[in-house]
Design brief:
Length: 379
Amino acid sequence: MARSTVPPSAPDPRPDRWSPPRPDPRLADPEVAAWVAGRARATRGYLPLHLAGAATARSRARRGGPGPVDDEQLLVRDLVVRGAAGPLPARCYRPRTGARATVLFLHGGGWVTGDLDTDDPTCRRLAAAAGAAVLSLGYRLAPEHPFPAGLEDAAAVLCRLADGDPAGALGELGLPAAPLAVAGAGAGGQLAALLALRSRAGDVPALAHQLLLCPVLDCDLDRPSHREHEDLGPSVADLAWFWGAYVPDRAARRSPRVSPLRAPQLAGLPPTAVVVAGADPLRDEAVEFCARLQQAGVPVRRVLVEGVPHAFLEEPALAGAQLAVRAAAEHLAASLDAAAAGGRVLDLTGGRAGERTGERAGERTGGVVVDLRERARRP
């Protein structure tokens, strides 16, 4: 075998050679940094989503989860429900001890990808922590079904939850018809926020709460956080591609019917919890939405998790994911209890979920801050 002629000090000529990235100060928590590095290794060489196309994007996002698996706390069942234009897949998570309310959950995936497995761990944790039934909906996806198809699906199922769906599969589950809440991750957060605006207008049933997890709230892709964190994903190019598939008409994207952050008034919306990832390109729009809700007098808890990227909730083992869902579930449960008692929620902006679990959680006006970067500073 011939001996290599490459000097030891020369760069390795092999293109598949991988070397660990330099530490990223935005992800100083070792657990998060290791998870991000692992994802980077697994996707190295992939085309960006906006070049790969919808079919490839869906293939990458498909998790192939365990399906409707019961656990010690939850009974889980897959079913088919009626959407706005036909049957849709859904998955129900119901606490074994009974449900205080029903939450319609809308998965993430940029309106183009995602399914019932995408946010399965989050739905399980939310149902168990809040003591509520969670119905995750597989709404229609773009570009085959652009706006408002997915939103109309969600609205139709929300209405059926409210009336008990006596002739359909939801009626067989016996879920509480009230109080009702909506929740969503990423693009699903946009759908949930639009449902809350429709509810305020009387177009869909009344809501006791909205929970938005790292939500998409505006079509403007030129905020500082877009530029600062796009290398952690989703990139500006990918976000533009998602928006183009979902709402091809650029002018239509600027309507409050599409971008919830552009609603001229937010007063009268239900109590809200918003989980914000500190290293998320979508961070600024979520923070702005929280500030506007607070100014409008809406009870809001902002759960800001510093040191994590947009997709951190997809890894349920991360401490930040556990803390974030727990803090948001506390606010959701309090809202549901107040609605069930017929009372008005006066103050749901406190909370020390992170402190109770040993994580430093500094409280600011309107929410909880969990800074996972603190671990790297500890001796």
